[in-house]
Amino acid sequence: FKGDDTCEYLLSSGRFLGEKVWQPHSCMMHKYKNSEAKNCLIDKHIVFIGDSRIRQLFYSFIKLINPQVKEEGNKHGNIPFEDKSASIKVDFLWYPEVNGSMRQRIKSWTESSVAKPHIIVAGAATWSIKIHNGSNEALTQYKINITSIAPLLEKLAKSSDVYWVLQDPVYEDMLSDSRKMITNEKIDAYNEAAVRILNSSSRNSKAKVKVFSVSKLIAQETIMKSADGLHLPESSRDTNAMILMNVYCNKIMKPIDGSCCQPQPPLTLIQKLAFCFFTLSIIGYLIINLIHRNNFRKSKSCTDLESGEEKKPAISTPNVSTLEMLLHSFCKLGLIMTYFYLCDRANLFMKENKFYTHSSFFIPIVYILVLGVFYTENTKETKVLNREQTDEWKGWMQLVILIYHISGASTFLPVYMHIRVLVAAYLFQTGYGHFSYFWLKGDFGVYRVCQVLFRLNFLVVVLCIVMDRPYQFYYFVPLVTVWFMIIYVTLAIWPQIVQKKANGNCLWHFGLLLKLICLLTCIYFLSYSQGAFEKIFSFWPLSKCFELNGNVYEWWFRWKLDRYVVFHGMLFAFIYLALQKRQMISEGKGDPLFSNRVSNVLLFISIISFLTYSIWASSCKNKTECNELHPSVSVVQILAFILIRNIPGYVRSVYSSFFAWFGKISLELFICQYHIWLAADTKGILVLIPGYPMFNVLVSTFIFVCVAHEISQITNDLAQIVVPKDSSTLLKRLLCVAGFFSGLLFFSAMQDQSRH
Questions:
Q1: Using an 8 Å Cβ cutoff, are 646 and 384 in contact?
Q2: Are 9 and 25 contacting, i.e. CB atoms less than 8 angstroms apart?
Q3: Is 230:170 a contact under the CB 8 Å cutoff?
């Protein structure tokens, strides 16, 4: 590696993903929109100086600012461009040869009385080869001229960004007779001279001319599509312009998916405090561990002086203190969070853009499905949606979602719509699971609430601190947290209706249905009243949790997208448990859920419904329109899947232990992928082993899964300590947690003030 200067990689190396997507060697390139380009270049003056190839680059560059620009005017003359709305001025200056005229123009910018351009893009050579018929004397003169220009460019580079564009190769078979003397051998000689001479006198690494050599690599792949063998096709020119925009603008705009040329973000006050806390935890655990080892050695063996025999102490499980367990958990967590930070905040590991192909998504899907079927075992119980089955369901859905994210399949609308159903199915399980617990157990105690909230939010809170990200960034956890609280409040408020009470009087069932209707009405009102929704979640300190980029629109969009599915999960649980109580379904091993005739009819309807939804989702043409329908129709495929999975007795009595294992850590997998499997906050892919994409995915996946499993265990261990069953102890812990979050809000406010 050449250090963390990703600008050098961006300007000099890369490869094509497919035909048109350019991937720099070590970093991610952002695709700038017109508004972003204007914001970056506001009040800037940019100059392109050179021949017809530089003119092409000039046009591609100004089209990033204004796509309506047409390539008109005198080709062999100066071309001005101005965007008055953003005070951007871009000029093309026709200087086809590196000669005295070009030198004089560049020299004029070095004079103190003249306003210097903020960006200078220069390059020329093919005209010199053509006019002088490829003679060696012309090359010698080119070296002399560029030697005289180099100090001027280096002087300008102290205050401006100066780029020298190397000459692209030509497609010699397509060149006209008047250009036959322009050979790739000659071009290489001119490029070699330019690279050797430029920056030769510069001693300050920060003030140097940036050599734009990546255009050569792009041309080598695309020059065959050239119209005349000399000028690049439009797609290649656009790629060069986008690279130029990334080099200059990434450090200004700081796009998440543009890691090239971005400096490492400075540590915040909260991150520094977290680092100190984890360091102290590691030191504390090591000290306690050393003391225990020392005590163990002293009492390891004792000699019976009377018999002369060695007596071994009785083997017993060591009594691990709460403090030691706490420090051990934080010690492991500290090391894991260091890995998180190094992967996605420090410029230590490479990052690459995603690139979708059908094979990159569907081949891994087939592979994991085969593995899942291979690890088939009998369930401990044969109830509908039993524990093993729900873990299996979560597991295969999570694996499909992970493959969807790493392959960049969101660009393929049919896949996107099916993945939306999987996310909805998670929320359906949230409604089903929590409703079932409260309905059957009647446990509305604080302990249960705190346990659920801790397990859901612990990892995300730690990541918000360590990775300096808002809570809403990990949108799925806020979503399930809020829905859990909605379910809890709906069932806990007076009158508390549970199964035990409802068994005594059937009217209580209608009371519960009335509660559910009220919940549905509230959901419907909020989904069509964005203003009311935003007012609720814009109150401090709720706004600190649900704002993203200064507003709660993203939170409203995420909530609205699956607004009915939790209600559907609660309603399904109510109907299923009522049928089960009245023994209207058969859940014995190997028995169909209903009578053979009813089971066959329901199975047929479920399969047709499942396929109908898939056909509709696959025929989607507009993401916005399909997202509008999704909240109402996603339940069709979810219910169809549940019935297909549970009606046949044999299918209900087996499960995949492979998928179930992943299902138990599905939440950790979903959250951890943001930083240690994907990169740049899910926008790219983490590269631990450059040059070997498949091997890299295998290694990073292995580490990622191990870390997720370890975090799951740490969360379970800490839940026992932080959320004890004893009411008085729990109250004290809750006061400590309240103090912790108050401190977090205080330091967060300090950070925000210092940033502004």
A1: yes
A2: yes
A3: yes
Cβ neighbours of 224 (radius 10 Å): 12
pLDDT digits (tens, 9 = 90+) for 265-317: 889 999 999 999 999 999 999 999 898 888 877 776 544 444 444 444 444 44
- Please state, in angstroms and rounded to a whole number, the distance separating the CA atoms of residues 341 and 250: 21
Element counts in the chain: helices (H) and strands (E): 29, 15
HSE, CB side, 13 Å, CA atoms: give it for residue 72: 3
Torsion angles phi and psi, residue 94, rounded to 5: -80, 100
**DSSP string covering 97-163:** SSSHHHHHHHHHHHSTTSPPPSEEEEE--HHHHHHTTT-HHHHHHHHHHHHHHHHHHHHHTTTSEEE
Q: Which residues are CB-neighbours of 19 under 8 A, at least 6 positions away? A: none
User: Residue 688, exposed/middle/buried by CB under 10 A (0-12, 13-18, 19+)?
Assistant: middle
Q: Is the pLDDT of residue 318 over 60?
A: no
d(CA 32, CA 242): 7
| Cβ 96 vs Cβ 122: under 8 Å | no
Give the pairing of strands 21-24 and 45-50: unpaired
Tokens of 458: 């612990």
CA pseudo-torsion sign 358, 474, 431, 434: positive
Positions marked catalytic: 52, 228, 231
Phi-psi region of 712 (alpha: psi -120 to 50; beta: other; left: phi over 0): alpha
Q: What is the mean pLDDT of residues 628-656?
A: 95
- Type of residue found at 74: N
Please report how the helices 623-646 and 413-441 are oriented relative to each other, as an axis angle in degrees rounded to 10: 50
* Cα 438 to Cα 627: distance, rounded to the nearest angstrom: 32
- Only one residue has tokens 């330091």, namely 747
Single-letter residue type at 636: V
Q: Position of tokens 């209600």?
A: 567
**Location of structure tokens 């969009």:** 557
The per-residue pLDDT for range 158-172, each reduced to its tens digit, is 999 999 999 999 999
